[in-house]
Structures are given as C-alpha cells and as structure tokens.
Amino acid sequence: QGSEEAKAFVNAFLKRSMPKKKDEAIQDLLSRKAVVLEHYSKKKTKQKRKKTKGFTAKQRREMRLFEIEPEQQRYTIFLPLHELWKQYIRDLCHGLKPDTQPHMVQSKLLKADLHGAIVTVTKSKCPSYVGITGIILQEFKHVFKIITKEDKLKVVPKLNNVFSLEIDGFISYIYGSKFQLKASERSAKKFKLKGTIDL
C-alpha cells in the first residue's frame, strides 16, 4: 500500500510540475528513471529610471538664459559681487597674510571660481583687448564676459590673452590659452605652475 501511495504522489507531482506533457510522456520518462522538471520563473520587470532632462545648448540660446539685460549692465550693480569674491578667496587661502606663499595663492586661484573677480587684460595678440579691466560676470569655456567701469559688457576670448587679477597685494597672471576650460572642470584639473609662457 505504501508503494502505491508513493507512485500516485509521484504521478500527481509530475503532472503539476510538467503541465505541458501528456501522461504517456511522463510514464516514458519514469521508465528511463530520468525526469527533468520544468521551471517557470516569473520575469521581473525592471523599472526604468526616469532621467531628468535638462535644456540643450540650442534651447538655452533660444530662451536667452545666459544673456544679461542691457538695464542690468552696470558696473556698480556688481561691486557687491566683487566684495563677496574677495572674501571667498580669503577663506579659500585661509587668510591672505604677508607671509603666505605666492605659489599657494596661485594654485588656489587657478581652481577657484572667478565670477566677481576684477581682471585686466595685460597682454594680447589683438592690441584692442589690452587694458580692458572689469568684473567677470560670466565664464565660459573659451571666453570671459566682463563689465567695465564704463558700463560696457565686453566678451574677451581666453585664447591668445594674458589676464591679471589682484587681491590684497597678490597679483596673479592667467594665461588664457592654458585656461580653456569650464569653471566646473577647472577644479579637478592639475595645472603646472611652471610652464611655457606664450600667448
């Protein structure tokens, strides 16, 4: 009786496990003493993450996101920004003291955010750029947008220009040809303080 119950259990179990096979096929498998049970796994549906799409460069240009309105192009409006920038640099350099090493200040300035800095074009392959002084309002990969004391917005290319900036007696020079990076990319770049001095 025990063997009959076992046989019935096995047959019932195999029917549930292999619903697609007929009884004859199951018996045939049993006679060979080799049974491969079919396994049906439920496919897990992966939820796709929604990517936050930003504006394309073309859309930003069409929306004029980075354009400064003419009525806002006044030097005095941005003087408080310059004061904030000076305090930011002092904190970055742990206080600009007379005994502070110039190369340390230079290395910090090369990676610092320059929005609000007053810069002067000291050398240029294009003579008309030399002498332009003003507050940096926007920095892009290849150009600086500078507002001058005469309330004129100048777009100065970095290529072939040398800029100087001064803070608390420290004067630093920026060689634009070696500086063609976005502000966000500069913080991770290693600059060589000693290099070829060229335009």
Automatic annotation (TrEMBL):
The keyword Ribonucleoprotein does not apply. It holds the Pfam family RNase_P-MRP_p29. Keywords: Nucleus, Phosphoprotein, tRNA processing. SMART domains: POP4 (SM00538). It is found in: Nucleus, Nucleolus. One of its GO terms (cellular component) is ribonuclease MRP complex. GO terms for molecular function: ribonuclease P RNA binding. GO terms for biological process: rRNA processing; tRNA 5'-leader removal. Component of ribonuclease P, a ribonucleoprotein complex that generates mature tRNA molecules by cleaving their 5'-ends. Belongs to the eukaryotic/archaeal RNase P protein component 1 family. Component of nuclear RNase P and RNase MRP ribonucleoproteins. RNase P consists of a catalytic RNA moiety and 10 different protein chains; POP1, POP4, POP5, POP7, RPP14, RPP21, RPP25, RPP30, RPP38 and RPP40. Within the RNase P complex, POP1, POP7 and RPP25 form the 'finger' subcomplex, POP5, RPP14, RPP40 and homodimeric RPP30 form the 'palm' subcomplex, and RPP21, POP4 and RPP38 form the 'wrist' subcomplex. All subunits of the RNase P complex interact with the catalytic RNA. Several subunits of RNase P are also part of the RNase MRP complex. This is Ribonuclease P protein subunit p29. It comes from Ciconia maguari.
